[in-house]
Amino acid sequence: MSLNIKQGDTVVVRTGSSKSKQGKVLRVEIANGSILIEGVNLKKRRQCPRKAGSKGQIIEKPAPLNYSNVLIWCASCKQGVRIKAKMSGTTKTRICAKCGKTI
Known about the structure:
The chain is mainly β and about 100 residues long. The chain has strands spanning about 10-15, 20-30, 35, 40-45, 55-60, 65, 70-75, 80, 85-90, 90-95. The protein has a domain at about 10-75: SH3 type barrels. It contains no helices and ten strands. The radius of gyration is 17 Å and the shape is elongated. The mean pLDDT is about 90.
Protein backbone atom coordinates (compact mmCIF):
# COMPACT_ATOMS: atom_id res chain seq x y z
CA MET A 1 0.00 0.00 0.00
CA SER A 2 1.37 3.40 -0.93
CA LEU A 3 0.36 6.38 1.20
CA ASN A 4 0.59 10.01 0.12
CA ILE A 5 0.96 11.13 3.72
CA LYS A 6 4.50 11.29 5.09
CA GLN A 7 5.96 11.77 8.56
CA GLY A 8 6.16 15.48 9.42
CA ASP A 9 3.20 16.55 7.23
CA THR A 10 0.48 18.74 8.68
CA VAL A 11 -2.92 17.10 8.32
CA VAL A 12 -6.54 17.85 9.23
CA VAL A 13 -9.01 15.20 10.46
CA ARG A 14 -12.15 14.75 8.32
CA THR A 15 -14.33 12.50 10.49
CA GLY A 16 -14.77 11.19 14.02
CA SER A 17 -14.54 12.75 17.45
CA SER A 18 -11.44 14.78 16.49
CA LYS A 19 -13.07 16.28 13.37
CA SER A 20 -11.47 19.50 12.00
CA LYS A 21 -8.43 19.27 14.31
CA GLN A 22 -4.98 19.84 12.84
CA GLY A 23 -1.76 18.19 13.81
CA LYS A 24 1.65 17.03 12.72
CA VAL A 25 2.12 13.40 11.66
CA LEU A 26 4.37 11.60 14.16
CA ARG A 27 4.36 8.11 12.66
CA VAL A 28 2.95 6.33 9.60
CA GLU A 29 2.27 2.59 9.73
CA ILE A 30 1.94 1.46 6.12
CA ALA A 31 1.03 -2.17 6.94
CA ASN A 32 -2.01 -1.12 9.03
CA GLY A 33 -2.86 2.02 7.06
CA SER A 34 -2.83 4.02 10.29
CA ILE A 35 -1.36 7.39 11.20
CA LEU A 36 -0.34 8.81 14.58
CA ILE A 37 -1.03 12.57 14.83
CA GLU A 38 0.28 14.92 17.51
CA GLY A 39 -2.49 16.22 19.81
CA VAL A 40 -5.32 14.43 17.98
CA ASN A 41 -7.39 11.40 19.09
CA LEU A 42 -5.99 11.45 22.63
CA LYS A 43 -6.72 8.43 24.83
CA LYS A 44 -6.16 8.25 28.58
CA ARG A 45 -3.90 5.51 29.92
CA ARG A 46 -3.49 4.61 33.57
CA GLN A 47 0.08 4.12 34.72
CA CYS A 48 0.62 2.03 37.82
CA PRO A 49 3.16 3.11 40.44
CA ARG A 50 6.52 1.43 39.82
CA LYS A 51 8.39 2.11 43.05
CA ALA A 52 7.16 1.93 46.61
CA GLY A 53 5.86 5.32 47.70
CA SER A 54 5.30 6.68 44.17
CA LYS A 55 1.85 7.53 42.85
CA GLY A 56 0.12 6.29 39.73
CA GLN A 57 -0.70 8.70 36.91
CA ILE A 58 -3.21 9.18 34.14
CA ILE A 59 -1.36 9.91 30.89
CA GLU A 60 -2.88 11.10 27.60
CA LYS A 61 -1.39 9.49 24.50
CA PRO A 62 -2.37 9.92 20.85
CA ALA A 63 -4.04 6.85 19.34
CA PRO A 64 -3.68 5.98 15.65
CA LEU A 65 -6.25 6.98 13.02
CA ASN A 66 -6.93 5.41 9.66
CA TYR A 67 -5.26 7.31 6.83
CA SER A 68 -8.59 7.65 4.98
CA ASN A 69 -9.89 9.93 7.76
CA VAL A 70 -7.33 12.70 7.19
CA LEU A 71 -6.44 15.21 4.48
CA ILE A 72 -3.15 17.02 3.97
CA TRP A 73 -3.26 20.69 5.00
CA CYS A 74 -2.38 23.14 2.20
CA ALA A 75 -0.90 26.37 3.59
CA SER A 76 -1.86 28.44 0.54
CA CYS A 77 -5.48 27.15 0.34
CA LYS A 78 -5.90 27.20 4.16
CA GLN A 79 -7.82 23.90 4.09
CA GLY A 80 -7.43 20.16 3.80
CA VAL A 81 -6.91 19.06 0.20
CA ARG A 82 -6.26 16.02 -1.93
CA ILE A 83 -2.87 15.84 -3.54
CA LYS A 84 -1.56 14.86 -6.95
CA ALA A 85 1.82 13.43 -7.83
CA LYS A 86 3.89 15.02 -10.58
CA MET A 87 6.95 13.32 -12.02
CA SER A 88 9.77 15.62 -13.08
CA GLY A 89 12.65 13.48 -14.24
CA THR A 90 13.32 10.91 -11.55
CA THR A 91 11.85 12.94 -8.67
CA LYS A 92 8.23 12.78 -7.58
CA THR A 93 6.70 15.99 -6.19
CA ARG A 94 3.39 16.29 -4.40
CA ILE A 95 1.15 19.17 -5.50
CA CYS A 96 -2.17 20.51 -4.23
CA ALA A 97 -5.14 19.42 -6.36
CA LYS A 98 -6.87 22.81 -5.91
CA CYS A 99 -4.19 25.48 -6.26
CA GLY A 100 -1.38 23.49 -7.92
CA LYS A 101 1.38 24.53 -5.48
CA THR A 102 3.88 22.05 -4.07
CA ILE A 103 3.31 20.67 -0.60
